[in-house]
Design brief:
heterodimer, A: 572 residues, mainly alpha, two-stranded antiparallel sheet, 20 helices, 68% helix, 3% strand, B: 692 residues, two-stranded antiparallel ribbon, 26 helices, globular
């Protein structure tokens, strides 16, 4: 019997070592803590890959389960559904550690100068200074060591919070228990709140509070739904819920679905629940924006897939059309608002809303292909949007502004950033050979198929408008690109240089992944399709994917294993 | 003859079919690396990759002449039952050779034209990417891979149209200060690139929708698979979806080939360097649409017999409208490259007309051959004309023909070869390939038996007349008459001179080729006709009743032997249109006997001139409807919904909480008497409620 703790280590290692990251930063400086955090997250990512190599297609899963409390077992599970989410979260977290180093150094030094510069007036920004005793001295001669101390302290703190954040996100998607899901869901909120409040821009504390408030309200609404499920089903473990789903009274199902959709919709920033997102994403420090936007909000989509579509089988088709239309509205609205922005990061924030609309659109499609496509969209949006946020960061680093009306013609001065940003832009626009196209065509194909299958005019019209919205996406992304990189270069940026290796190499790594998945999507697509296919195999309201015309093809997924493969059992 | 050859897979030259499109991509990927070695190495490497791809394409030719086929597949996305594969049959082998060889000549020309540009690494990368994508479209065996190439072409064109992204005034197109209906009619390179990308994207989503429809019923994107099992077509026809699906796929071709109503991007696309324009117009991009129709047309014809006639009607009419629309605009434009661009759109319209009429007539192969033949001859003379125009631009330094004039003496070679290619475009009778291919289209329209064929025929003849006129106008304004003021002014600093051999040889080859093909035109067409007859019969089972009694003796050696086969009406109309247009154009712009200002004397002719010059106000409508309008709506939503209501929720909530706390606070006076009073009052009320 193999006793393995891959997922346990992958999840909790970052949390356990986060104090070390802080101490390392404080004592040894930013290099040490950056590479330490990178190493830890790289180990965590490797463990995820090892664990997922045990998957055998179909609905098989790799599960580690430990006795926990009266809520049930504490489990960590990787399967076709959580795999894409977990892998993308960890890849982004790992890569962005390195990207954080130059960016946060710049940011922290900037705030140090701000603090030491206007000492009298800016009492507000002094709160986070390490030498709070210095407040009394009006004319402080800033020594080198002073700055270094400040920077090291904050780099350490940043990475400690960063590691905790990554743990929260990973835990949420690996959870096997409703309460566990909720705990992780809230756990990722706390460090992200502090990261935003400490290292953000503008009115960062107000915005951090706003971010916390709204997502927390969402989480509480979600909790009500989760508790209701648990009480009726007699347990909080996913497996228990799945077995006892019939015990939930019908009149409660409506309320539960409502609570789940609203609660997760806030996280997902669906149309009308998106109040917090443009602020939080544009004012967060850029590496955190690059995590919040693609990785974190997409967890809302994971929640819908896992908690609603998988656990509460059977009632999905009643509501799917509303989700579909809501997704459509979000898609168009986010795109339209993105057209109105001048701030790069704010534009990208609205773009994220729009992209979440794509995912909702797919989730509401009532077809295997649509849901597969939506899941794949998470992967591709994660990569593409992270690249674009990193581009925004690269531009902020070099020019000090993120207002597009002040920028222009940077393609010649920042060629690497421009080229990689183009790949990111293509991913978001859904142009081959990036992974964006793979996600998009499967998604839209699914939506159209299910509309045709039921001769549902509404769905077909929604499909038409949805695919038209991809032109809108292309428009705002390319317009942004044109305003930043094309045209006449402003006088003051005529000597701008491209960002350093930390920025370029990390961006290039993500670009390589999106190109790879765009040409050869199988490593991600196979587990997702297998899983979603099996998930709905008994549900005839959902349009199955079948190859109507199997010409000389061996359909290997037909006879794949159906059972859950439990490898490790812990000490229960 | 039905082909008796075994289908070639990966063995032997089968692998070359893959190489044709893979090599340019490999080259593109290597260009940034080779650039580290040196600029010369990079430039020659790029040309070398183009040549290698062209040579691989040439090795396939024997297969096409034999009526054979190369088809090989690998697993791509097994879980969705999707394969990657190349399919090289007669159609795609001919096409791939046209693309490869014309691209190769344009690459050589680029060596001269782009000499000294600082960003050549980017240039060569996207040029190679461009032809790789185009070859992918041509050689793919399924629609999904075609779409990969399709978007690759779009991306490359975006990058190359906005190649001079710094938006310097001299790289603009259009007349500065020209507004039509409140919309600016001149554009910067970056604007033009964006416009091209978005407009073709609008076509692309139609194509995708059509593909999804077919995939939904057939479960495959493969051309051969679709043909093997045709039950999907019956099923779709039952649901009235077959024609919509076909028309939607044709929507992609409308976008890429700049057909009405998505034609407006093509004119601004002239901001790119001239070799790029030549590539877009002759070999890649706009030809992709025509090729796609040539690829799927027979498929839809085969699977649905005559039920898909509406589809072909749409193709024919879109082609006819575009041909006419853009020809009228070419008559009045002052920019040499834009005249050529309008001309391309117009000629593509004629090709579409030919391909469309194929499905409406009893002899599918006639229209099919004529459309494709015109594609071939257009590829030759248009590439030549663009490169010649580039030479003129290079020499003069202005894009306006009004700044040229009298160049004949200074640029003898350019003049000679542009004249040859121009005659081919104008369809000078019997000696140019353009004449034979256009005549084939006219004849196939006339003989089709389609009920409105006479309208199409009349449009085609009018277009022929206008083509001859604007070609002579362009040549006349550029090479004849006196030197313009612009040239005279710049004579001191910038001397007009003939271009170097690396530039003129490529377009000389194509100009000569278009005349050479013209001299053997009829035989050539006949060969093509025969090849397509056996291709259509062998692959799609489309037998043309007419062509069986149409056998021409195989010993016909000379091109003029079969002249009696020609349709007399078509030939007469074609010659008449050419003569009229050429004489008129020659008198006005070459001999300069008639003053072109004559149009401004009458209100009507001036109004017509203005209507054409303002592009029928289509660009204006496009911008109001698709850019200005939506942006205004978004701004209203932004201002009155997002910024007011959505952004107001948070402060509103905060405000109401503060207010609520104030209300509560008002009661918290801290004075004991008040509390006692309230307490007593409350107690009284409770007592009264309980006991009274």
């Amino acid at each position: 019997m193999i006793e393995s703790y891959y997922l346990l280590i992958a999840t909790f290692l970052p949390l356990l070592v986060s104090p070390i990251a802080y101490i390392l930063g404080k004592k040894k400086g930013s290099d040490a803590t950056t590479w330490f955090s990178f190493g830890i997250l790289a180990i965590s990512t490797m463990l995820l890959f090892i664990a997922s190599s045990n998957l055998q297609g179909g609905r098989s899963a790799y599960v580690e389960s430990y006795a926990w409390s009266q809520f049930g077992n504490f489990g960590l599970r990787i399967d076709g559904l959580s795999l894409p989410f977990a892998i993308i979260i960890n890849i982004l977290c790992t890569v962005l550690t390195l990207y954080s180093k130059p960016y946060m150094l710049h940011k922290i030094k900037e705030s140090f100068e701000e603090n030491s510069g206007k000492r009298e007036s800016a009492s507000d920004s002094n709160e986070y200074r390490s030498n709070s005793g210095g407040n009394e001295i009006k004319t402080l001669t800033v020594s080198k060591s002073d700055e270094e101390q400040y920077v090291n302290h904050h780099m350490g703190l940043y990475f400690a919070l960063y590691l905790t954040f990554s743990m929260g996100m990973l835990g949420t998607v690996l959870a096997t228990n409703l309460i566990e899901f909720y705990v992780f869901f809230e756990l990722m909120l706390v460090p992200s709140f502090f990261l935003l409040a400490f290292y953000g821009y503008g009115e960062r504390k107000r915005i951090a509070l706003m971010f916390f408030f709204w997502t927390h309200v969402g989480a509480v609404v979600l909790l009500l739904g989760l508790l209701a499920i648990g009480f009726f089903a007699g347990g909080f473990d996913y497996d228990t819920v799945m077995q006892n789903v019939d015990k939930i009274p019908d009149q409660w199902i409506v309320l539960i679905v409502f609570a789940l959709v609203i609660g997760l919709g806030v996280k997902l920033a669906a149309f009308a629940l998106h109040i917090w997102l443009p602020y939080a994403h544009s004012e967060a420090p850029t590496p955190i924006s690059a995590l919040l936007s693609p990785a974190m909000i997409g967890i809302g989509a994971y929640g819908l897939l896992r908690l609603w579509l998988e656990l509460l089988v059977g009632d999905y088709s009643q509501y799917s059309i509303y989700i579909n239309l809501w997704g459509l509205a979000t898609m168009i609205y986010g795109g339209a608002m993105a057209m109105m922005q001048d701030d790069i990061k704010r534009l990208l924030a609205y773009s994220s809303i729009s992209q979440m609309g794509y995912i909702l659109f797919g989730i509401g499609s009532e077809s295997v292909l649509g849901i597969t496509g939506a899941t794949f969209m998470y992967v591709t949006h994660g990569l593409g949007k992270a690249i674009l946020f990193m581009m925004a960061g690269s531009i902020i680093l070099q020019t000090g502004t993120r207002s597009m009306s002040k920028l222009g013609g940077l393609a010649g001065r920042m060629p690497y950033t421009a080229v990689i940003a183009m790949i990111g832009a293509l991913t978001i626009m859904g142009i081959p050979p990036t992974s964006g196209f793979m996600g998009e065509w499967i998604l839209f194909n699914g939506v159209l198929q299910s509309g045709l299958e039921n001769s549902d005019t509404l769905r077909i019209v929604a499909f038409g408008l949805g695919i038209l919205a991809t032109v809108l996406s292309a428009a705002y992304i390319l317009w942004m690109y044109k305003r930043i990189f094309f045209g006449k270069i402003p006088e003051q940026y005529a000597r701008v240089k491209d960002s350093n290796r930390y920025v370029i190499v990390t961006m290039a790594a993500l670009a390589a992944i999106t190109l790879f998945l765009g040409v050869y999507p199988n490593p991600m697509l196979n587990p997702i399709t297998d899983y979603v296919q099996e998930m709905f195999s008994g549900d005839n309201t959902v349009l199955q994917f079948s190859t109507a015309n199997p010409v000389n093809v061996t359909s290997s997924y037909m006879n794949s294993s159906n059972g859950h493969v439990t490898v490790a059992g812990g000490d229960s | 003859m039905v082909d008796l050859h075994a289908i070639i897979g990966f063995e032997g030259i089968g692998i070359n079919a893959w190489m044709v499109w893979i090599l340019p991509f490999v080259g593109a990927a290597l260009i940034p690396v080779i650039a580290k070695v040196g600029n010369h190495a990079r430039n020659y490497a790029a040309v070398g990759f183009a040549l290698a791809s062209a040579l691989s394409a040439a090795t396939l030719l024997p297969v096409a002449l034999d009526g054979g086929q190369i088809h090989s597949q690998i697993n791509w996305i097994p879980i969705l039952n999707i394969h990657a594969g190349t399919l090289a049959d007669s159609l795609s082998i001919i096409m791939t050779n046209i693309v490869a060889w014309i691209s190769f000549l344009i690459f050589i020309y680029s060596l001269g034209y782009m000499h000294g540009d600082k960003n050549l690494t980017r240039y060569w990368f996207f040029m190679l990417f461009f032809i790789g994508s185009m070859q992918l479209i041509v050689l793919s065996d399924n629609l999904l891979m075609v779409f990969f190439g399709w978007e690759g072409v779009g991306l490359a064109s975006f990058a190359l149209i906005s190649f001079w992204y710094h938006d310097k005034k001299r790289d603009f197109v259009g007349t500065p200060g020209h507004y039509a209906g409140g919309i600016q009619m001149w554009a910067s390179p970056s604007h033009a690139g964006l416009k091209a990308f978005l407009m073709t994207k609008a076509g692309d989503i139609m194509m995708l929708s059509g593909m999804f429809l077919i995939f939904g019923y057939a479960g495959t994107f493969g051309f051969t698979e679709l043909l093997q099992d045709q039950s999907w077509a019956t099923e779709m026809a039952k649901n009235n979806l077959l024609v919509p699906a076909a028309v939607l796929i044709f929507g992609g071709a409308i976008g890429k080939s700049a057909q009405f109503p998505l034609n407006e991007w093509l004119l601004e696309a002239m901001t790119g360097p001239t070799p790029v324009s030549a590539l877009i117009h002759a070999a890649t991009m706009v030809k992709a649409g025509v090729f796609l129709v040539a690829r799927i047309g027979p498929l839809f014809f085969a699977v649905s017999a005559l039920n898909s006639s509406q589809f072909f009607e749409v193709i024919a009419w879109v082609g006819a409208i575009t041909a006419f629309l853009l020809a009228t605009q070419a008559l009045v434009n002052p920019e040499i490259k834009k005249v050529l661009a309008y001309s391309t759109g117009s000629q593509i319209g004629l090709m579409m007309m030919g391909l469309g009429i194929a499905g409406l007539s009893s002899s599918f192969v006639d229209g099919y051959t004529s459309g494709f033949f015109h594609l071939m001859s257009h590829a030759m003379f248009k590439a030549s004309l663009f490169m010649g125009a580039g030479a003129v631009l290079h020499a003069v330094g202005s894009r306006f023909m009004t700044d040229m004039g009298g160049l004949m003496g200074k640029m003898k070679k350019t003049f000679l070869f542009m004249m040859m290619a121009g005659l081919s475009l104008a369809a000078a009778p019997f000696i140019t390939s353009g004449f034979w291919s256009k005549d084939a289209i006219l004849a196939s329209v006339l003989e089709s038996g389609y009920q409105y064929s006479w309208v199409l025929f009349a449009i085609a003849v009018m277009v022929s007349f206008m083509t001859a006129f604007y070609t002579f106008r362009m040549l006349g304004m550029t090479f004849f008459g006196n030197k313009s003021k612009f040239i005279q002014q710049n004579e001191g600093s910038h001397h007009v001179h003939e271009v170097s051999a690396v530039m003129w040889v490529p377009f000389a080859i194509l100009a000569v080729a278009s005349i050479a093909v013209g001299l053997i035109g009829f035989t050539f067409e006949h060969q093509l006709h025969e090849m397509f007859t056996s291709y259509l019969a062998g692959t799609f089972g489309i037998h043309s009743e007419l062509s069986e009694g149409h056998e021409v003796p195989t010993e016909s050696g000379s091109g003029f032997l079969g002249l009696e086969e020609l349709n007399p009406v078509a030939v007469t109309a074609s010659i008449g249109a050419f003569a009229l247009g050429a004489i008129l154009g020659g008198l006005v712009y070459m001999k300069r006997i008639i003053d072109p200002e004559i149009v401004s004397r009458s209100i009507i002719s001036r109004a017509v001139w203005k209507f054409f010059f303002n592009r029928w106000y289509l660009n204006t409508a496009l911008y109001w409807g698709a850019v200005v309008g939506p942006l205004a709506i978004y701004r209203i939503i932004w201002r009155y919904f997002e910024s007011t209501i959505i952004d107001g929720i948070n402060p509103g909530l905060q405000g109401s909480m503060t207010y609520f706390s104030k209300v509560i606070k008002a009661g918290q006076t801290g004075i004991a008497q008040t509390y006692l009073f309230v307490f007593a009052a409350g107690l009284m009320i409770i007592i009264m409620l309980l006991f009274l």
